[in-house]
């Protein structure tokens, strides 16, 4: 099931504020302590185009010094990464971040996977365009799925086929 925690997480909000000036979106932030060391993992995306290693490096150079001071920890491990091409969505917030991307969700309402491009999302659900309900072989222009009927979701990578 998808959570609704990202927007209420203080660490998530702070990192989002910090990196939005770089034109990047925060997807996920996790932090843990292990043997006196703070481990922090930040997953970022870019709304305009694809995120690249230069973007990740810039974000790292902004986040690391700030959180080293805030955590007052000289032993801070920071991992900054992209979401990957087939990321499993964990929070409803991610539908906003990945607007325009193709997603594959399992809908309990249709008892089937639904594949489509994220057009919009709000508090109730997500709107997909050019959708296909796989088991029913039913397709159409626009479909709205309520979050409470989505049991899992992930980005769908459309592999290009070779034309010989």
Structure notes:
The chain is an alpha+beta fold and 164 residues long. It is built from three helices and eight strands. It has helices at residues 10-19, 53-70, 93-97; strands at residues 25-34, 37-45, 76-81, 102-107, 112-121, 125-133, 138-146, 150-155. The chain has a five-stranded antiparallel sheet with strand order 7-6-5-4-8, with no helix packed on it. The N and C termini lie far apart (42 Å).
- Radius of gyration from CA coordinates: 18 Å
Parts with pLDDT < 50 across at least 5 consecutive residues: none
End-to-end distance, in Å?
Answer: 42 Å
Main β-sheet description? 5 strands, antiparallel
Helix tally equals: 3
Helix/strand order, N-terminal first = HEEHEHEEEEE
**What helical percentage do the residues reach?**
10-25%
Strand order of the largest sheet: 7-6-5-4-8
The protein's oligomeric status is single chain
Class by SSE composition: alpha+beta
Average the pLDDT over all residues and give the rounded result: 90
Number of strands: 8
Strand residues, percent = 35-45%
What is this structure's SSE topology?
Layout: H1 10-19, E1 25-34, E2 37-45, H2 53-70, E3 76-81, H3 93-97, E4 102-107, E5 112-121, E6 125-133, E7 138-146, E8 150-155
Parallel strand pairs: 2-3
Antiparallel strand pairs: 1-2, 4-5, 4-8, 5-6, 6-7
Q: In brief, what are we looking at here?
A:
The protein is α+β, with helices and mostly antiparallel strands. The chain is built from 3 helices and 8 strands; from the N terminus they run αββαβαβββββ. The protein is elongated.
